[in-house]
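Key result, reporting period 2: structure in, sequence out.
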């Protein structure tokens, strides 16, 4: 038995990318035993602490109507906390069938089984595009592998990761919880890259706005015919909300607006009389 456990620990260390070194603790309940056969696929199970789960959900500003997905849901702590605290629907996708069963038992113990669902499956195969909040505790490599799929999700989807960042996508917000652990938030930006026909007030009407987007950061140029009349470097898109500042004929403008597919509406300098609309 001792040998078997030692073999398991060593095998885990060699075969799996680990979080926090070698975790040999057997969490769970009396029906659950962590074994080599039931270890995670791309990363082994290490549970998020309740304090962190609560911080992650609060960072994502979970609210009525949200649908929370936890990718690699372990014992179900995050979906269960989401259902308990916010009465929202939550789904866990977990590769390990023993953990799926454990999380179902945990949901029943927490009396939230009507709100949460646990699905056995591979996070790189299963569809989670309907999530409005996505939670991750997977490691930077796996977060980064998921990034192209996440970026195609509905604009405004909040993505929260316990401890790990994503390579090539700066977090919109980060918090350190009391024990020093970090949580990161990203908000899926609308896709706004490209050329827009822009109509603003008086001399700012009938222009072309060319936007160049890098995740939530945007730079852009306004053209009148072929003439470049303004340029900005530090625009931001947060979900569907776009904001940028530019100067035209010695006047400073701040555009704030919303993106809805291929249309943009908003105004300049918070003035409804300076309305802007644009189409891509
Ligand atoms: C570090 S644990 C996090 C568990 C849970 N999300 C939490 O925060 O407590 C990672 C989980 O991902 C699961 N996992 C690893 N690769 C997976 C994959 N490709 N598809 C689904 N689950 C996976 C593991 O079994 C493990 O339960």
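The corresponding designed sequence is given below.
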């Amino acid at each position: 038995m001792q040998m078997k456990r030692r073999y398991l620990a060593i095998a885990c260390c060699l075969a799996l990318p680990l979080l926090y070194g070698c975790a040999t603790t057997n969490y769970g309940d009396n029906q659950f035993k962590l074994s080599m056969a039931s270890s995670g696929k791309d990363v082994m199970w290490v549970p998020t602490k309740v304090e962190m789960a609560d911080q992650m959900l609060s960072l994502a500003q979970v609210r009525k109507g949200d649908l929370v997905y936890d990718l690699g849901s372990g014992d179900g702590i995050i979906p269960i906390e989401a259902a308990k605290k916010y009465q929202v629907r939550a789904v866990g996708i977990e590769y390990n069938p023993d953990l799926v069963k454990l999380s179902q038992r945990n949901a029943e113990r927490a009396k939230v089984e009507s709100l949460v669902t646990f699905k056995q499956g591979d996070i790189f195969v299963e569809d989670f595009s309907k999530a409005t909040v996505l939670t991750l505790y997977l490691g930077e490599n796996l977060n980064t592998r998921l990034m192209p799929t996440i970026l195609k999700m509905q604009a405004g989807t909040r993505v929260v990761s316990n401890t790990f960042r994503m390579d090539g996508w700066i977090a919109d917000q980060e918090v350190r919880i009391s024990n020093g652990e970090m949580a990161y938030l990203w908000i899926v930006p609308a896709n706004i890259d490209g050329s827009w026909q822009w109509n603003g007030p008086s001399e700012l009407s009938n222009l072309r706005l060319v936007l160049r987007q890098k995740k939530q950061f945007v730079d852009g140029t306004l053209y009148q015919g072929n003439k470049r009349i303004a340029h900005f470097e530090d625009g931001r898109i947060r979900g569907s909300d776009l904001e940028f500042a530019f100067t035209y004929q010695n006047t400073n403008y701040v555009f704030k607006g919303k993106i809805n597919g291929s249309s943009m509406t908003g105004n300049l300098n918070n003035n409804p009389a300076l309305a802007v609309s644009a189409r891509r």
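Residues 1-25 have pLDDT under 50 and may be disordered. The two ends are 65 Å apart (CA to CA). This case is discussed further under Risks and Mitigation.
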